[in-house]
Amino acid sequence: MMPGKEFRASARLMGSAFEFVIIAPESEGENLLGACVDEVKRIERLLTEFSDTSQTAKINDAAGKEAVEVDTEAFQLIERSLALSRLTQGAFDITAGALKKLYNFRGTAFLMPAKDRICKTLQSVGYQKIELTKPNKVRLAKEGMHIGFGAIGKGYAADKVKAMLLGKGIKAGVINASGDLTAWGSRLDGSTWKVAIADSANPRNAMAWIPIKDASVATSGDYEQFFEYQGKRYSHTIDPKTGFPVSGVKSVTIVSPSAELSDALATAVFAMGTKVGLHFVRQLPKTHVLIVDEHNKVFTSNKIKVNFEG
């Protein structure tokens, strides 16, 4: 048994549902939960696309013009994002948001954008068009470009909250940013934290769970945002290299040492597809994957620990 008490809090942050679970001394728990919320709010102010004063807005407003100086924290996150883009050969790309605006995933009468419109938008997409100058200057090479951290920001926030709590001596907890989560230590009774994997046929039910200790998990799935066009199901995830929505995969779950990495790789592997994605993850240390394809068939990397329901 661990000393202390389990404290929980939920909040709507970064456009998503966050849940914080910590094992802490009774006198400190509520204050620490408040500090968790404050840290995510700070990161949201730093990175949001929906504010004129964020680091992201400063960079996007100057697209095609001059380099802008940003905070060290934002610069380093962009550096790591570009490294992930190179690692995934462009399957993860923080400039891909412009492509998403071409699609209406929630509409009943869906229309595929014209190919020439996709081609034109692709001219303003590409991580190679982000220019970094140390110490902290960022320039988007083409007018009309913009960056966004939707595929890495929540994972980054989870990691930062964990780091803050570790610095305050909290030896166990879970930071869950709508399925992008990090967990460390054990529950009060000494048992392992568990992460549920949603059933692709009925997302409210779990098809499996993964035991997690000192690791991070992220899932990219099309359960809530997908459409069918000419008899084929497409995801809300856009392939940054082609500009077209991804098909053939329903969900990707990544387990890795950090929530930031899991978040980014879940998006990248979704775009890669089952065969390429499995091969890619198998080359990475301490990183595991579970993929559900369009036929609800499950594929996993070799060393992932999965407990299937029933």
* Subunit arrangement of the protein: single chain
- Per CATH, what is the topology of the largest domain? T-fold
CATH superfamily of the largest domain: ApbE-like domains
Number of strands: 16
The shape, in one word, is: globular
Number of helices: 8
Distance between the termini: 29 Å
Strand order of the largest sheet: 1-2-6-7-10-13-14-15
Largest sheet: 8 strands, antiparallel
Q: What is the CA-based Rg, rounded?
A: 20 Å
- Which class of the largest domain in CATH terms? Alpha Beta
Helix content: 25-40%
Structural class: alpha+beta
Q: What is the succession of H and E elements? A: EEHHEHHHEEHEEEEEEEEHHEEE
Task: List segments where confidence is low: pLDDT < 50 over at least 5 consecutive residues.
Answer: none
Provide the residue-averaged pLDDT: 93
DSSP strand content: 25-35%
CATH architecture of the largest domain: Roll
Q: How many discrete domains?
A: 2
Q: Which key features would you list for this structure?
A:
single chain, 310 residues, alpha+beta, T-fold, 2 domains, three-stranded antiparallel β-sheet, 16 strands, globular
Describe the structure.
- This protein has 310 residues and is an alpha+beta fold.
- It has 2 domains: 197 residues, T-fold, CATH 3.10.520; 86 residues, Orthogonal Bundle (T-fold), CATH 1.10.3980.10.
- Helix 1 packs antiparallel against helix 6, helix 6 packs antiparallel against helix 7 and helix 7 runs antiparallel to helix 8.
